[in-house]
Amino acid sequence: MINLTIDGKKITVLDSTSVLDAARQNDISIPTLCHHPKLTPFGGCRLCIVEVKGIPRPVTSCTTPVSEGMEVTTTSPYLEDLRKTVLELILSDHPNDCMVCEKAGDCTLQELAYFYGINPPIPPLEKGGRGGIFAGERRVYTKRDGNPFIERAMEKCILCGRCVKVCDEVMGVGAIDFTYRGFKSKICPPYERDLDCVFCGQCVAVCPTGALTGKMWTLKGRQKEIKEVDTICPYCGVGCSITLHVRRNEVIRVSSKDDTINEGWLCVKGRFGYNFINHRDRLTRPLIRIAPKNTKEAQKIRSSEDKTISNSQPLNFSTSHVFREASWDEALDYIAEKLKTIKEKHGPDAIAGLSSARCTNEENYIFQKFMRASIGTNNIDHCARF
């Protein structure tokens, strides 16, 4: 264990703990932009600088390990002035479009600018320059991104490196990295091609600004009138926890919290595959198939005025694919009758059951119990192989 003093407060932490983590464990606030607790330290934003007794210059707290007897100062007029200057430099090369930015209200850069009382820079000068205390050229990129899920607003990128680290350290994909040098530095895929990866969206989840957002989220809602509903991802047997962001009874985006079993990480289906919820082809009532004798009879049934016939899907049905809507009671009675008939005529092993990972463990248990105890067969399978 290491004993040190932070802002006059004596604390004890584990060896190899960083100064930043030691401060946060003791409810001492230090601002950051590039730091993420589940990624390796970077020290690129320079906002977490602190003063350590015996060291003549400020050091980045996220990359500085604690040592015995260390005396740390996290805030002073000198440090706050340096941090404000860093923020002003970042904002001098950042678009001033918070009014329409998807991350407004959930943007770390915006929040820090608010707390430090930094007014937006004055409108750009001619030829891409910007006025204000740090006047000069700002980065302007031609928008070009053909990927289906992630919107990349490169002018909003602050080069914090979070997206690069999560892609490499968590996903092991390495689809993006720092390129070029100096003022021309940027984060992009190899050879500046369109983003072409697994589209898990981890980079979107850790981005502190509006540089990375979901294309499906555009103009659907930000913070106001948004209801958060915690639930379980319906796609596989892993059971990741997800948070649905709902506005006017419609899911507008999906995220995941850090204190869940999946630690906030999601795959492409969990993060972006929610359009099925309100899709017009989604079944809302049971359907029973009608087996007409020929095509002419099928067309007659399809064109009838019977409102129980399902015409919602624009499909080219064959003679054996005509459906009518039914109640749950009728559908379950129909299934029970058919299963009983097959079992009596061909035996229980003529029946097989395939369960779904979208069901709960309890529902899957009941299903296999039904197949084994009621039907009398072990022909039961599942995509997650329970």
Order of helices and strands: EEHEEEHHEEEHEEHEEEEHEHEHEHE
- If strands are numbered along the chain, what order do they take across the biggest sheet? 2-1-5-3-4
Distance between the termini: 45 Å
- Report mean pLDDT, rounded to a whole number: 87
Please give the structural blueprint.
Elements: E1 2-6, E2 9-13, H1 19-25, E3 49-52, E4 59-60, E5 71-73, H2 77-91, H3 108-115, E6 129-130, E7 136-137, E8 150-152, H4 162-170, E9 177-179, E10 186-188, H5 202-206, E11 212-214, E12 227-232, E13 241-247, E14 250-255, H6 268-272, E15 287-290, H7 295-302, E16 322-325, H8 328-346, E17 353-355, H9 361-375, E18 380-382
Parallel strand pairs: 1-5, 17-18
Antiparallel strand pairs: 1-2, 3-4, 3-5, 6-7, 8-11, 9-10, 12-13, 13-14, 15-16
How would you sum up this structure, described in words?
- The protein is of the alpha+beta class and 386 residues long.
- It has a 5-stranded mixed sheet with strand order 2-1-5-3-4, with helices on one face. A 3-stranded antiparallel sheet has the order 12-13-14.
- The model is unreliable at 125-131 and 311-319 (pLDDT under 50).
- The protein has helices at residues 19-25, 77-91, 108-115, 162-170, 202-206, 268-272, 295-302, 328-346, 361-375; strands spanning 2-6, 9-13, 49-52, 59-60, 71-73, 129-130, 136-137, 150-152, 177-179, 186-188, 212-214, 227-232, 241-247, 250-255, 287-290, 322-325, 353-355, 380-382.
- The chain folds into 5 domains: 2-75, Ubiquitin-like (UB roll), CATH 3.10.20.740; 139-214, Alpha-Beta Plaits; 220-279, ADC-like domains (N-terminal domain of TfIIb); 282-326, no CATH class; 335-386, no CATH class.
